[in-house]
Structure formats: structure tokens, C-alpha cells
Amino acid sequence: MTNNQNTPPGWGYGQTGQPGYGKPFQRPFSHPETQQPAFGQPYTQPHNPYATPQPVQPYGQPSQQPVPRRTKRKQQRNSGLRFAGGFLAVIWVVFVLEMIFPWLQGFGIHPLDIYSLPMIFTSPLLHANLEHIISNSLTGALFAYLIGYSGKRVFWEVTAFTVLIGGLGTWVFGGIGTNHIGASGLVYGWLAYLIVRGFFNRSIGQIITGVVLGFFYSGLIWGVLPGTEGVSWQAHLFGAIGGVVAGMVITSDDPPQLVAKRQAKELEKARRQG
């Protein structure tokens, strides 16, 4: 059928009998990848040089946009500052309470006293005097910031290993009739973790951080040895052991390359077993 005089210019009917603009009707397709034009050529998406390629997400999973590096660094700094500020706030609030209620210092670790075993969780929060708490505040806040920079999960994992291993070691070997209080065992654990962690997760940045901290705080090594009266070298020693164990076993701050390599090994192992 052709146009007549009553038909608007350019308007006509295609070969299928459906209205069109002077061209044969082409059926739309739901999937561009399978669309076949009229001349039998496979359909290809037009190239757009200004388009940003998007990663293909598995069906049913939400898309995850990469976080810009500047935003990620800001989030890490904020995380570290929160943990450093939280550490200082907690120990100083508890210290003020100790000045009002001196009997709180009795919640330290009493070695081999079964009733004081839960005190391994309260002992790091208590301090004997102003000099004691000041000596732990600055170094503790610095180490809390550096660990918290890697994320809250890393911070709590390292802290848990340090408190448990350091507290239990002090409870067993601290000496009957003594009372162990102070955050120094926790500080030693954090420092030990920061020194050794980079060698286990193969992070160049953490290795450099550990070497620098080991150099500037090398004098603390004497704190893990007996000899100074009134100093809980047991808390220092076993706290440091807890930090080393944490550096060996936790994986929450592994670099992406190490995570990918470990996943590839697990897939290969599963393939061989299957």
C-alpha cells in the first residue's frame, strides 16, 4: 500500500501492515545481546568513549561502588580517632571514680584467686596514681589510633587477644598476694601487634610502621623483664605475647592481594577434593 493525498507526508505503512515512517516495521527485542536487525547482522552496543565501565554484579546481589581513596582515608582516620579518644575517655573517667571510691582498685588481678578471674577485664581500666595513668595515656592513645585506623573489627580482635592472654598469664604467674592494675599490659600488646603484624600480612606500610615503632619504643623491652619493684612485668610480658598472637592469627586487615591469593588457594583445594 502506498501513501495517498490524505496521508500526512512521511507517514505510511510498512511491509508488515503496521504504521511506520516510511520504513519496514522492526519488532523490538527484550535483550539487546540477541537482537537481530533486518539485514541479519548481529547487534552490537554502540561504543561510548565517555562512559565509565561498570563491574558486572552477580544476580541477586546489590552493586558495590568502589569507595574513593580520599573518602576511605578519611573514614580510617575518623575510626582511629574514635578509638584513641574512647580509650582516653574511659581510663580517665574510671580514674576519677577511683579518687572518689578508692576501693575500686581492688578490682585488679589477684593471681590464683579464682574469684578475681573476671577481673582480667577490669584491671586494664584501673591505675594507682596520676603518674601511672599519664604514662599509659599518650602511648596507649597513639597505639589505639594506629590499630583503629585499620577498622573497628581489627581493634577489638587485637584488644581481646591482649586482654585474655595477658590477663590469664598475669593471673597464673603474677604472684600470690599481689594486685595487678593498669593499662600497661594492654599498651604492650598493642605495640607488639603493630611491630609484627606487617610481617604476617605482607603489608609494606605496616612493616614500616612496625620498624619505626620498634625503634622509638625499644626501651619498653626492659618492661617485660623482672627487676623493678612495683611494676607488673608479668602483665607486660603476657600482654606482648597476646599482641604477637593476634598479629599471627587475625585476618581482618589483610591486604586485598593476600585475600585474593588465599581465596584462590581455597578454591583450588576444594576443586581437588571435589
CATH homologous superfamily identity of the domain at 70-259: Rhomboid-like
Strand arrangement, major sheet? 1-2
Percent strand equals under 5%
Radius of gyration: 33 Å
Tell me the span between the first and last alpha carbons: 66 Å
What general outline do the C-alpha atoms trace? globular
Order of helices and strands: EEHHHHHHH
Query: How many E-type strands?
Result: 2
By oligomeric state, this entry counts as single chain
Report on this structure:
- The model is unreliable at 7-17 and 29-35 (pLDDT under 50).
- The chain has a domain at 70-259: Up-down Bundle (Rhomboid-like fold), CATH 1.20.1540.10.
- The longest helix has 32 residues, at 69-100.
- 51% of the residues lie in helices and 1% in strands.
- A two-stranded antiparallel sheet has the order 1-2.
- The radius of gyration is 33 Å and the shape is globular.
- Strand 1 (12-13) and strand 2 (19-20) form a beta hairpin.
- It is mostly helical.
- Helix 2 packs parallel to helix 4.
Summarize the model shown.
This protein is mainly alpha-helical and 274 residues long. Helix content is 51%, strand content 1%.
